[in-house]
Amino acid sequence: MILSFKRFPFLSSTQCLIICLLWVATPAFAQHILPEKDRARVIDEILAERFNSLLPELMDKTEIDMWILISREYNEDPVLRTMLPATWLNARRRTILVFYRDKKSNTIDKLAVARYNVGENIESAWDKEKEPDQWKRLMEIIEEKNPAKIGLNYSRDHNIADGLDKTDYDEFMQYLPSRFKKRVTSAEQLAVRWIEIRTGREMVLFNQLVSITHEIIAEAFSEKVITTGVTTTSDVEWWMRQKVTEMGLETWFHPTVDIQRSNEGLVSHLYSFSGRPEDMVILPGDLLHCDFGITYLRLNTDCQELAYVLKPGERSAPSFLVEALKKGNRVQDHLTESMKEGLTGNEILRTALDKGRNEGLRPAIYTHPLGAYGHSAGTTIGMWDSQGGVMKDDGENYPLNPNTVYAIELNSTVHLPQWDRDIRIMLEEAGFFGPEGFRYVNGRQTELLLIPRPVPHQGE
């Protein structure tokens, strides 16, 4: 494994040496991955922090004092899924969660209209022997708390906030007393903020997730996995998938690997993700690209990196490819410098594209929220097929909020006279937007990975 400390410019040379020694002494990846029992403990601790500290703040900001989430087993609301304890892999029967915020007393009730507690954070509030009808028990709670505004998860603009199915909505409204019906509102803003916002502890974990993701890519794009002239792109994809499984992790999408080379023309953007040849043999001079992400501790990564396959006698990538990567990095710079709190994704997109084009670049930006889901809820900054801005039902008017994570996903089309063709420098890295602005969660690629890694000559 080759570590590139260009990802960590804040480390001193002494710190780099210490990390190198620790790395050599430790099996690759092993120091990162927790056993299942410890993962469950961490997940439940984070949930408790989010319920007790984050949720009251979000309910106050969105002015919803009662949030009701309703799901049936195997048809879970995407938001409710993120609230289940580590030992619950699904809802049970019909699971109803009720969060009631009393701002005056600064309390939050976390109740389940279910037969049992939902982990240690949410207390059962239904005794079926006393009240056999689950819906009637829910109405009793509503009557008792007398909320000013009842939030339900339905939304036109945000799919993750639209988890209440029609059957449960209809039954809820049928049982709900008339005087409360005008108090029902969409909880989309609350749901999206719950999904998008990361706590400080989650960001510590996110750094580790991205590190693991980078390490898997670095190994996949190396002579440990790739034998030039033999290994195919599909072989590398399945190696990555198998590696994730062997590490006890999961991936939320199948990895992809594609090739750009001098004797082939540039095809559509979709080529990298759909419709490309599945078994292209990797050859010297190829520019490789991958799209890869993992799921761990209920967080997700999404990363795209590039590698160059050395020709016989080469010890570095051609300078024109090095310069092409720099143009991709410049598009990243224009995007991240344009990210300002309160701006919508369309506003950020327009500013970043204008900056890139004014510099002579040919950018495309399609950045999405990242976190509890791979394609998560929050600010959408372009789509690959919507460079003029996304439509309303894709979150057009949703502003950029602090303490959120994004897959900084984009490309720059670059003409290479040496290849007599255009190529795309496609990049994707996890980035955090906080009160102090933007930062990459764990660095970004600024140098092409080389296959095979050059071995230093004696005296170098």
Can you describe this structure?
By secondary structure, the chain is an alpha+beta fold. The chain contains eleven helices and 17 strands. It has helices spanning 13-25, 36-62, 78-81, 134-145, 166-175, 178-181, 188-196, 200-220, 233-246, 319-338, 345-358, and strands spanning 66-72, 94-102, 107-113, 123-124, 150-152, 184-186, 256-260, 287-292, 295-296, 299-300, 303-309, 363-365, 368-369, 404-416, 421-434, 437-440, 449-451. It has a six-stranded mixed beta sheet, with helices on both faces. Strands 12, 13, 14, 15 and 16 form a five-stranded antiparallel beta sheet that branches. Strands 7-8-11-17 form a four-stranded mixed beta sheet. The radius of gyration is 25 Å and the shape is elongated. It starts with 12 loop residues before the first helix and ends in a 9-residue tail after the last strand. The relative contact order is 0.11.
Give me the CATH architecture of the largest domain, please.
Answer: Alpha-Beta Complex
Low-confidence stretches: 1-28
What is the assigned CATH homologous superfamily of the largest domain? Answer: Creatinase/methionine aminopeptidase superfamily
Radius of gyration: 25 Å
The pLDDT mean sits at: 89
End-to-end distance: 19 Å
Element order: H for helix, E for strand = HHEHEEEHEHHEHHHEEEEEHHEEEEEE
Percentage of residues in strands: 15-25%
Q: Provide the CATH topology of the largest domain.
A: Creatine Amidinohydrolase
CATH class of the largest domain: Alpha Beta
